[in-house]
Amino acid sequence: MDIELLASTLLSRLEHGFDHVLGQHISRMEVALSARQVPEGLTIVEDPVSVHPGYGIELLLFMGGKYNRFSCPQQAMGVQLASQNTTNFAIHMATGQGKSLVWLFPASIATHRTTILITPYPGLMQDIKDRCEDHLLDWEIWSPSNPHPEHTPILLVSTDQVAHPLFMAHVWHLKAANKVARVILDEPQALVTSQRYRPIRTQLTSLADMGIPFGLLSATLPSGIVPPLMGMLGIRNLHVVRGCTARPNLAYHRQVCESSADLRKGVVSLAKELILHMASGERGMVICVNDEDTTYFSHQLGAEMFTSDLSLEEQDLTIHRFRTKASGTIVCTTGLIQGIVIPHARWSIHAGLPHDVVDAIQSLRPIGRDGKESHCHLMALRSQCAEVQEEGDVLGVGAIRRIVSQPNLCVQEALTGFNDLHALSCGALHSALCDRCQALGMVRSQGGSFSVSDCHRPSVWVDLTTPFSKTQHLSPRSPSLRPGS
């Protein structure tokens, strides 16, 4: 064997591979820089935040003595920004990383003022109420039948109710008495993705005109969404803190079908197999694009059905019934299931192409929240995956078609690249493998649990005795925002 020839060949291939990787990295940076160009008149800062030490004792009390450290740097930065009561901020973190603590913890310290949480997901209300009760926080839900609730540190309101004149009157009353801490918008990308929320734009800008700061919490906040979202809110300045949004415990699988009959047959066959192998306590979801498919698959699988035809009371009963069963399957329309916490949801099937990347990521949020390996199956018709014009496509309509139809793409890398501009493949994350990475012969990570700390980000535990520095977190482009600045 000619060792020198072998070494020369190997070195040549390594150099070629390095050039290829470097070229990909430069291309992604160019895309990231172009996506971050800000329209004239808006200021968007995406930099680290210096966190003031001293939250340890308060956090220990808030968490009932369980721990006194934040789960990740972005969570700590969010708490710092939320405590200032002057800065509009957005926290972009993966599902299950503790976004709710960003506003609940400051609210527990300043109970003399009211934090208003606006959410587009009625199903999230119960989860927030449970968390408030866990932390011994009083709360009220605003509604036309409860137009002037007594003073409370937490006021919950559905996005649909924001336009009600009695709600705006109540906020004016609180603001005049200097009792409003800030407004928190949960998953605010829904304001951009759904036409139903356009009528409340006037009320949202009125909140900004009152001088009430906004806090935005989202698992899906692509950079292209930020400027139009700021326009809807009527704000000119926003401090964005981004974390890794990858879900290392999710394994993605794709299947493209030629006909609707093949799609329905494939979904039913796969769902029955997954149901057969579910352990006690585990749950599964079939996510449909319309109510007709939801009804069909529910009858075929004997599963719970969750559609827009149900009243709010019926929806609450359906979700409660599903969540309290020993195990089970639910068939739902995409959008309705978003924002609902489902314990031990182990698999999902998209029975049809998601509307866009934002819709896909949002509808997958209930899956694998316990950190165990879970499986997401994306099934679509070939006709649904036709290329589309992508000019101004901030939601990823074209991207989701490519992700599902092109088997050479790593699903994990494509999703994270679109969502937070840090494209991380299954291999880079040491995560569960998508179908592409498994076909390449990669070795699946061992063990049943995964952590976002695998995402090549700062340590998942945050020492509160030392302020964050620029060299530790996120982008080093401009100085850190100091407390009170």
Provide a descriptive summary of the structure in words.
The chain is of the alpha/beta class and 485 residues long. The chain folds into two domains: 43-242, P-loop containing nucleotide triphosphate hydrolases (Rossmann fold); 250-451, 3-Layer(aba) Sandwich (Rossmann fold), CATH 3.40.50. It has 17 helices and 14 strands. Strands 1-8-2-7-6-3-5-4 form an eight-stranded parallel β-sheet. Strands 9-14-13-10-12-11 form a six-stranded parallel β-sheet, with helices on both faces. α12 (312-324) links the parallel β11 (304-306) and β12 (328-333). α3 (73-84) runs parallel beside α4 (99-109). The longest helix is centred in the N-terminal third of the chain and has 33 residues, at 3-35. The protein is globular and about 60 Å long. Mean pLDDT is 80; it is low at 1-36 and 451-485.
Which structural traits does this protein have?
disordered N terminus; six-stranded parallel sheet; single chain; 16% strand; 2 domains; globular; 38% helix; Rossmann fold; 485 residues; alpha/beta; eight-stranded parallel sheet
